[in-house]
Design goal:
Layout: E1 23-29, H1 34-45, E2 50-53, E3 64-65, E4 70-72, H2 73-81, E5 87-92, E6 96-98, E7 101-104, E8 106-108, E9 114-118, H3 128-146, H4 165-170, H5 177-182
Parallel strand pairs: 1-2, 1-5, 4-6, 5-9
Antiparallel strand pairs: 3-4, 6-7, 8-9
Helix pairs in contact: 1-3
The structure holds zinc ion (2 copies).
Length: about 180
């Protein structure tokens, strides 16, 4: 008889220690390349989330701000809110704004169920790998907000506020130790 063993702890790395497994729905809003959504699914699954991809939703054209050529980000939060799932991350190629900001890479309820990321600006000056790194960082950032994390002053932490793509590129893909402890 083999001796009793202690059960191995799950992979102990930042972002894998949420209290319960999260069922995350990725919700494409407007046309989004399937391979981009698939890539996000893979990257977020690797962080310990159960991820499913919902059917693409049309964004109501009446919510387009013609003067700004942008959508208000909270329109997408409302769409995500109405979707079944513990957490819903809307993914869109449309450019978003919110409040007094010229644009946002994403927005989330904090804490809450719904979040959105826009891929629109993430392709600027980026090869495929950089683009995908940016998308994962923005997704993890917004999901961090849904779990109650606020912005972090550590510029390497994924919860650091991105005012520009340079900020996003400087960040790591995970939370710093301080943010990780708060989860
Ligand atoms: Zn943020
Ligand atoms: Zn942090």
């Amino acid at each position: 008889m083999p001796a009793a063993r202690t059960i191995a702890a799950p992979a102990d790395r930042p972002g894998t220690r949420q209290k319960k497994p999260v069922m995350l729905v990725l919700l494409p809003c407007g046309p989004v390349e399937r391979e981009d959504v698939d890539f996000l699914m893979g990257a977020l699954s690797a962080r310990g989330m159960k991820v499913v991809i919902a059917v693409e939703r049309k964004v109501p054209t009446a919510t387009f701000n013609v003067a700004r050529r942008q959508y208000r980000a909270d329109v997408f939060l409302n769409m995500a809110q109405n979707e079944p799932g513990d957490q819903v991350l809307a993914v869109t190629n449309y450019d978003l704004y919110s409040g007094g900001l010229n644009f946002v890479f994403g927005l989330a309820e904090s804490p809450g169920k719904s979040a959105v990321i826009s891929l629109f600006r993430l392709r600027r000056g980026a090869n495929e790998e950089t683009f995908r790194c940016r998308a994962v960082k923005e997704a993890v950032h917004e999901l961090g907000h849904t779990w109650g994390l606020s912005h972090c002053q550590n510029p390497r932490c994924v919860m650091h506020f991105s005012n520009s793509l340079e900020d996003t590129d400087r960040k790591e893909m995970d939370w710093c130790e301080r943010c990780d402890r708060k989860l």
